[in-house]
Amino acid sequence: MKSILKNSSDSDGGKRILSSVAEVVRRLDEGLRHAKTVQEVLTPANNGLRLRLRELCEQMIVSDPEDSGRKAEDLLWRKVHYEPYSRAKQIGQTFPLGQYETGLLICHLLAGIGSYQQLTLNLETQLGVGGSHRVDLALCQPQGMTRETVTVRASDCSGQVSAWGQAALAADPHQHR
User: Fold this and answer.
1) Would you tell me which of 7, 40, 80, 118 could form a disulfide with 35, CB atoms 3.0–4.6 Å apart?
2) pLDDT block averages, 10 residues each, the chain of length 177
3) DSSP states of 85-154
């Protein structure tokens, strides 16, 4: 978090966003640290904080893709998707996850896939890139954007979240098809 704050622009709007990001990350870290069950990891309050962080990271990616875009993308991936999943898996190693907990985890993963699809579409719209082109979130530059195809990290992240979901479904002995 400090590296994002250190390399940020000096604009008041940028400082406000970074201050909000730091506060949301602090609250999410605190919630994960105290969580003893999957339900505590995925509470509505924590999900609301993750949604707020996603919105703030998207603002950072669009407003300053060169300086803080990649860092915001990594923060988005880690705090919104990876850490809750990782904590839930840790809890599952200590206490076997039941059908309800597995369902919560699967819902979180499905929401993650939708989140990355929405992020990709929003960036395409806001940066004026056509739907047939791929966008590298770290290379998005509104001025001088070329029409060449580049890798979409959002698609990579969405693919990872999808793989986690498939693993969670395969591990659920109570699944219904």
Assistant:
1) 40
2) 46 82 95 93 94 91 79 90 91 88 88 84 74 48 36 51 63 50
3) HHHHHHHHHHS---HHHHHHHHHHHHHHHHHHHHHHHHHHHHHT--TTS---TTT--STT--S-----HH
